């Protein structure tokens, strides 16, 4: 499995979030506390929206080496400031360790990253891939279930309705797996953004999803911890969504409920129930 972080809010140096916290994403690449594997060394990636540029498309840096000793990652993170960025460290579930399989995945202004897996992926991979829209199919570069999930969501209307598109993607994966006799196929925590809002999803077919947390509102954290200077630099809208907490600051982290999704946006956030959507209507099936 993998670990990831999504940041939205006051522009900061990427290193302030990726490297500096006590249990930062880089620390988690070696010492994960809540992942299936302790070590996540099968590649990494960061995606960020540059400030004051003519394009709204994000920049992406991905590589196959472990995050903890990559000099380019450290160099970029210490010199790049952004108000919306993703970071991901990979532990492969069977597909090749190659740059095109590292998250986050990008299509136009969209970024996508995933922790989890599709069980029996090798058996249903062809059926899933053939459902991707023809005009999108050629843009798939890797061999992971995560990338196919992204392109299915794009096919099912991500640009117009992100929650609905992810629900239709999840329903299609489960329906396809069911036809092949694969039980409980989907395990996912997903983050996706268009550069303005971040959607985060926690769902699994068996109802035992991987961990996911969202940070407490900054104004509440300032009241709890007036001595923490870093909090004074952040806007009230700043939020982080993470696979596991970046430290042990009391009151800082809240577990995202099972089978739910949240949206982080400039005017606040909200949490909603998540249910896959099937061709014959919304779930559950059976």
UniProtKB/TrEMBL annotation:
Residues 2-245 form the Glutamine amidotransferase type-2 domain. The keyword Transferase applies. Gene3D superfamilies: Glutamine Phosphoribosylpyrophosphate, subunit 1, domain 1. Coiled coil: none annotated. CDD domains: YafJ. InterPro entries: EgtC-like, Gamma-glu_amide_hydrolase, GATase_2_dom, Ntn_hydrolases_N. The keyword Transferase applies. GO terms for molecular function: transferase activity. It comes from the Bacteria. Keywords: Glutamine amidotransferase, Transferase. This is Glutamine amidotransferase.
């Amino acid at each position: 499995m993998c670990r990831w972080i999504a940041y939205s809010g006051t522009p900061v140096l990427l290193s302030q979030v990726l490297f500096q916290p006590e249990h930062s994403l880089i620390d988690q690449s070696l010492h994960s506390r809540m992942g299936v594997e302790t070590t996540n060394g099968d590649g990494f990636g960061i995606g960020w929206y540059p400030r004051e540029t003519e394009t709204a498309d994000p920049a992406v840096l991905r590589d196959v080496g472990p995050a903890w000793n990559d000099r380019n990652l450290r160099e970029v993170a210490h010199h790049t400031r952004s108000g919306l960025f993703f970071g991901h460290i990979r532990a492969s579930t069977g597909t090749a360790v190659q740059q095109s399989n590292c998250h986050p995945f990008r299509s136009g202004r969209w970024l996508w990253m995933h922790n989890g897996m599709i069980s029996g992926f090798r058996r249903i991979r062809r059926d899933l891939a053939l459902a991707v829209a023809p005009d999108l199919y050629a843009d798939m570069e890797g061999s992971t279930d995560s990338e196919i999930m992204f392109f299915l969501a794009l096919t099912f209307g991500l640009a117009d309705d992100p929650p609905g598109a992810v629900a239709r993607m999840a329903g299609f994966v489960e329906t396809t797996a069911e036809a092949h006799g694969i039980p409980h196929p989907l395990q996912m925590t997903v983050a996706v953004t268009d550069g303005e809002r971040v959607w985060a999803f926690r769902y699994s077919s068996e109802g035992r999803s991987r961990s996911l947390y969202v940070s407490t509102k900054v104004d509440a954290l300032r009241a709890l911890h007036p001595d923490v200077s870093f909090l004074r630099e952040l806007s009230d809208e700043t939020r982080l969504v993470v696979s596991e907490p970046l430290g042990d600051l009391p009151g800082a982290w809240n577990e995202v409920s099972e089978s739910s999704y949240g949206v982080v946006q400039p005017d606040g956030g909200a949490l909603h129930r998540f249910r896959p959507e099937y061709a014959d209507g919304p779930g559950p099936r059976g």
